[in-house]
Write a sequence for this structure.
């Protein structure tokens, strides 16, 4: 009997599996929040269409076949129209429309990310991992719930050419050339926010590394690498972790 994957090309089905896995991993890593937030992935071979979760499903319920296909104008091309969330569409369509390189876009309301977004301070390069974002992160002021199409232009202006954005009084956003990139960057950004909050909470002076050391590290952490060896195996290891726990994301 034909399965749901038979409705799609091999490339689109692989993209659907990767995105569904990203939702499950976000939940596993403690980055889900009830039925809210979104992770999107541009469809292979298309600049105008992307995949997004059905609003109302928990991240732990998302499967490859449950994802909606949406265009940049908010038209649902595959799936029920009533399950498209306006705020998710506004935020993600703005980034996909302005940044062809941002194939995957991830937005969270994590505890430390939301807490940090309410602080009137920049993200500091306090840890080696956090140096990835040194002079490589944007900040977007809160404008209310993201339901105004006009906000899209300001959001992408504040993101600029960066792959990470702190939405003030709101949460975090990362982009990547694939699901692995965007997810890894979000894990790192959340941990960097957590590290800074914990370090600041001690009241002790913060020890800052030299600018030269920070910039050198940032360049090494953000340079393009061929997806071979450990870099290529990282996503496979995460998918293997999901498969051992619950492979239903592939359905």
């Amino acid at each position: 009997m034909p399965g749901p994957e038979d409705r799609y090309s091999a490339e689109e089905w692989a993209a659907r599996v990767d995105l569904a896995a990203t939702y499950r991993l976000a939940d596993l890593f403690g980055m889900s929040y009830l039925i809210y937030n979104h992770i999107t992935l541009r469809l292979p071979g298309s600049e105008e269409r992307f995949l997004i979760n059905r609003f109302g499903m928990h991240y732990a319920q998302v499967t490859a076949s449950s994802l909606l296909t949406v265009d940049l104008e908010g038209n649902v091309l595959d799936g029920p129209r009533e399950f498209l969330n306006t705020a998710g569409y506004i935020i993600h369509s703005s980034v996909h429309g302005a940044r062809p390189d941002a194939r995957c876009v991830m937005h969270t309301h994590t505890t430390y990310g939301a807490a940090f977004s309410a602080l009137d301070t920049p993200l500091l390069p306090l840890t080696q991992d956090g140096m990835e974002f040194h002079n490589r992160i944007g900040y977007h002021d809160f404008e209310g719930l993201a339901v105004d199409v006009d906000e899209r232009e300001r959001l992408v202006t504040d993101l600029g050419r960066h792959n990470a954005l702190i939405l003030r009084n709101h949460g975090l956003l990362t982009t990547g050339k694939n699901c692995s990139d965007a997810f890894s960057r979000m894990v790192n950004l959340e941990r960097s926010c957590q590290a800074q909050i914990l370090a600041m909470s001690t009241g002790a002076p913060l020890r800052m590394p030299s600018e030269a050391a920070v910039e050198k590290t940032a360049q090494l952490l953000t340079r393009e690498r061929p997806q071979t060896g450990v870099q290529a195996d990282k996503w496979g290891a995460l998918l293997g972790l999901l498969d051992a726990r619950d492979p239903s994301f592939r359905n």
